[in-house]
Amino acid sequence: MTVSGCPTRRETGRIRGSTVIASHSAAHPETVTLDNVSLRFYDTRARQVRDFTPLHEGCVSLYLCGATVQAPPHIGHIRSGVNFDILRRWLIHRGYAVTFCRNVTDIDDKIIRVAKDEGVQWWEVSERNQRAFTYAYDVLGCLPPTVEPRATGHVPEMVELMHRLIDRGHAYAAEDGSGDVYFDVPSYPEYGELSNQRVEQMRTGEGDERDKRDPRDFALWKGARPGEPQWPTPWGPGRPGWHLECSAMATKYLGPVFDIHGGGIDLVFPHHENESAQSKAAGDGFARYWLHNGMLTTGGEKMSKSLGNSLLIPLMIRRVRPVELRYYLGQAHYRSSLDYSDEALQEAAAAYQRIEGFLTRVAEVAGPVPAGAEVPADFAAALDDDLGVSQALAIVHGHVREGNTALADGAKERAAELAAELRTMLAVLGLDPLSEQWAGSGAESAGMRDVIDALVSVALGQRQAARARKDYAAADEIRDQLGAAGVLVEDTPQGPRWELKRG
Ligand SMILES: [Zn+2]
Question: Per the annotation, does 275 bind a ligand?
């Protein structure tokens, strides 16, 4: 059974933090209609930027290869989640109903190995790490997937897909009785089209196969070894191959043909090549656009295990706030590689604090600022063009600079106008500090801010009184004491203002 790519419960309209509120064009006449949307994405298979037209008007179906839950996630694992969350939010903002399927690979060699080493069941390892991934996605403000299927819950769909491939002459069960089922690579001449390789020059697949006809053939299904978890099939008991599960789940939830398949660039070969080959050989259209995010590196190299352990999400959000970590992970173009350093992380946190600082100052002089009606045209153009987040952030910071100048000039209305647009842009990026997701995430949570404000006002009143009687030593001491408590006081033409020191 397949489900249409456009569900009845649509995720459309404007995003307020993690809450998606449906809107209607009558109520929001300024909302962009689909007629004037010109989205373009770099499609890995076409090796060029292509105009995006969805299969069904107004709907986008999106599949993302999610976690293999063999260990808890470090920031390298979660970058893809943040990148594709921004894509999804932009599609929603553009008025599309998005069905987002992100799978969980809950069985593989390493999960079995970890379970054996710890003397626990494989599912205990999967459960524990899946919870760690869910926490990481949530804490970084990624909208939950429309559906998050697990591999082991979809064995019947995989068996059905293998039947189709065997019937069409593109797969075979190993003759050694091992229960392995292989995809027959030479039977499918288009193999290599996604990763742009010629089949005769390809390296061979994974190492543990038993009775393959051709070294390039890859396992759809792995026959059971003694003591390993297993599920029955007509070819013998075993467990899912990694590639097969994604094809089976994408097709089940998004249909035989769907709009966008995403994942890290390291998955292009063999994983995505194999997904594409087995689905197309079975007669499905499969993904129409392939989008791949760049890797997170350290010192220009792939992240080592030990370094990865120091970059686990719970540790990272002690160094910076979750919203600052999201800013850091999302700021570069999704296709570029992001080289991690502590300095770059701190710079990103400081850049985000400049945005927050401006919104706080505007609220102080002009009252609460509601999010604006629509994003600026140049911001929209940047995101339409292969999700140009770095260009979009340049426009965000331009607004902050212009807004600060307006505040300094006493142009409150202009500052408030810029702040409203700023909030709309930040919401699309999942970074609006005043959204439901992030409000109260920092030290300045709403209630505490009022309490601190009252206490600081008392101290500032005493400082003012000390100055009035020309007791500058006492006035400076009050300021220093506030500083020691983490309250920075700044004298402005409008009187003293304060903010909390960060970090
Ligand atoms: Zn996959």
Answer: yes
3-state secondary structure (DSSP) of residue 218: strand
Strands 296-298 and 301-302: antiparallel
- In the chain, % helix, strand, coil (3-state, to 5) comes to 45, 20, 35
Nearest to 390 by CA among 340, 435, 335: 335
State the Cα–Cα distance between residues 332 and 165, nearest whole angstrom. Answer: 40
User: Given a cut of 50, is residue 28 above it in pLDDT?
Assistant: no
> 204 CA to middle of ligand 1, Å?
19
> Does the global pTM surpass 0.90?
no
Instruction: Kindly report the CATH number that applies to the domain delimited by 301-428.
Output: 1.20.120.640
C-alpha span between 392 and 426 (Å, rounded): 10
One fold for 14-293 and 301-428: no
Give, for 276, the enclosing helix (H) or strand (E): helix 273-281
CA of 79 to the centre of ligand 1 (A): 16
Per-residue model confidence as pLDDT tens digits over 255-271: 999 999 999 999 999 99
Break the chain into its structural domains and give their ranges.
Answer: 14-293, 301-428, 446-500
Q: What is the domain class of 14-293 according to CATH?
A: alpha beta
